[in-house]
Amino acid sequence: MSRPLGWTRLVLTVGVLGSVPVAAHSVQIPALPGSPRVPVLPLKEAPPRAALPAPEPIGDSIYPALGQRGLDVLHYDVTLHIDRPGTRGLRGVALLTLTSTRPLDTVSLDFLGPTVQDVRWNGRPVPWQQDETAAKLRLSPPTPLRPGQEAQVTVRYAGQAGVRQDQELGLDLGWVPVTDTAGRPLSNYTLSEPDGTRTFLPVNDHPSDPATFTLHVTVPRGYIVAASGLRGTERVVDEGWEYTFDQAQPIPTYALGLQVNHFQRVDSPAVPVGPGGAAVLRRDYFPDDTTDAVRRPYAQVGEMLRVLSGWFGPFPFPVHGAAVITPRVPALETATLLTMPVASSFERVIVHESAHQWFGDTVVLGDWADVWLNEGFATYAELLWLEAQGDDPAGIAATWYERLRDQGSRPLVATSEAQLFDQSAYLRGALALHALRAAVGDPAFRGFLQGYVREFNRRPVRTPDLLGFAARSLGPVAAMVLRTWVESPTLPPLPALRAPR
Ligand code: ARG
Ligand code: ZN
Predict the structure, then answer these.
(1) At what angle do helices 372-388 and 301-312 cross, to 10 degrees?
(2) Atom of ligand 1 nearest to the CA of 333
(3) Of 10, 19, 196, 229, whose CB has the highest number of CB atoms within 10 Å?
(4) Residue 267 gets which letter from DSSP?
């Protein structure tokens, strides 16, 4: 993925680009404190807001409206001002570097968030429309974006973050405020799977378009920002503190983690599990009053990464850890920085979310119907971890099997939103891998897992891709075992692992 142009370069480009000397006509509006200064046209010269045609979405089988077909966002450079943590209020500037795989005469981003104030294409105002009904921000480039051509879109917005309710969970997704019982604002967290990131950032909100992120987040003095990626500069600005993070490996939009809280950061020794034994930095964030019992399992993360990388190959990011949050919500595999509720702060869940760093965050989904490719692999990692601690893998598999037999299961490709995170995605998905392991033995299974991660690194994967890879790497008999677990309307028999020799 190519690096985005820096702001300096962008501002210079604006002056010399088209026939109109834009910069000469422009006024310097006071930029958001701490954010780059951009020349802005006087309002009368800004193109009118317009009703723009709705381009074709990506065509996800569960969420058909998400994303734009052909659009490829390479990088999101995001400046956010969180003036009052614990509320939905925010101001932001998102600078997207994008390209396409087909000619696009309208660019359409998923956005449920605050009011858009200004939209630019390579620094110049263009017609745009914030369609709240469709939850899209559309803009019209001066000339259609050609395949392979790169452009920069700047979106300035302010107001209240959008609301995306998850009916299955009965929870709000995206940028979520936390208050105390009296309603006093406390903190914010993100919980964005599958499509919550659009509540605070204009995005091509589909896992098949992973991108890199740079975040510059300003919060009042005393608050700490934790986010996906490597920590960059931290500096004092007029309104408080500005934190910068660089997520330099592409990740799905839902895997972007961002937290504002009164945290204590705990650094631990780096773990040599990156490519070629490179050091992976370790840091966890705990709310100030976190008990020792909640903190304790995070001391095992280094060991977890050793065990998991022994099966899956090198850890794909330069840093890993967790941010603990107090609300009762599911844990989430936010890249490099697990979102870990206090109530989920157990080894098994930490291992599960850590395994998603390979499966979900690096090998990304091509369609939400295939989410078992995330959940089945992450659940199987729990067994691999417990086995490394001396537990009997056959016993774990048998427990999963009984639950599926008692409560029923389905073929693995989901056909409805209600199925996405059901027991079949997790347990039958995991048992499909267990069956494959039983059929081919540990060395071949390990090679298969590592080959799959290499082959589909940042390449959207669907279930037939996995089956095809199994056939290529392990042969047709093994692939048929996996396929039976994927497709059979009934639960296949529980496989027995061969005794290790
Ligand atoms: N991917 C999360 C996990 O680690 C689950 C999130 C659950 N629910 C949801 N609607 N996203 O298993
Ligand atoms: Zn999971």
Answers:
(1) 110
(2) 4
(3) 196
(4) E
Pocket probe for ligand 1: among 62, 165, 193, the residue whose CB has the most ligand atoms within 8 Å is: 193
φ/ψ region of 146 (left if φ > 0, alpha if ψ in -120 to 50, else beta) reads: beta
Burial class (CB in 10 A: 0-12, 13-18, 19+), 27: exposed
Tokens read off for 360? 């979900």
> How far apart are the C-alpha atoms of 451 and 290, rounded to whole Å?
40
**Ligand 1 — pocket residues by CB below 6 A?**
166, 168-169, 193, 330-333, 352-353, 375, 421
Peptide bond into 297 cis (omega under 30): no
Task: Determine the Cα–Cα distance for residues 152 and 73; give it in Å rounded to an integer.
Answer: 10
Q: How many of the other CB atoms lie within 10 Å of CB of 235? A: 12
- H or E, element range at 116: strand 115-121
Phi-psi group of 439: left, alpha or beta (phi > 0 → left; psi -120 to 50 → alpha; rest → beta):
alpha
Query: What contacts 91, CB < 8 A, 6 or more positions away?
Result: 32, 80, 81, 83, 114, 157, 158
The alpha carbon of 353 and the centre of ligand 1 are apart by a number of angstroms equal to 9
**Per-residue tens of pLDDT for the chain, all 501 residues:** 433 333 333 333 332 222 222 332 333 333 444 444 444 444 545 565 778 999 999 999 999 999 999 999 999 999 999 999 999 999 999 999 999 999 999 999 999 989 999 999 999 999 999 999 999 999 999 999 999 999 999 999 999 999 999 999 999 999 999 999 999 999 999 999 999 999 999 999 999 999 999 999 999 999 999 999 999 999 999 999 999 999 999 999 999 999 999 999 999 999 999 999 999 999 999 999 999 999 999 999 999 999 999 999 999 999 999 999 999 999 999 999 999 999 999 999 999 999 999 999 999 999 999 999 999 999 999 999 999 999 999 999 999 999 999 999 999 999 999 999 999 999 999 999 999 999 999 999 999 999 999 999 999 999 999 999 999 999 999 999 999 999 999 999 998 887 654
The residue nearest atom 1 of ligand 1, judged by CA position, is: 332
How many residues are there in the chain?
501
Residue 51 DSSP SS3: coil
Nearest to 298 by CA among 245, 230, 351, 356: 351
Residue-range domains of the chain with CATH: 364-487 (1.10.390.10)
- Strand pairing class (89-100; 71-81): antiparallel
List Cβ neighbours of 134 (8 Å cut-off, separation of 6 or more): 54, 65
Q: Dihedral sign for Cα 52, 58, 62, 66, please.
A: negative
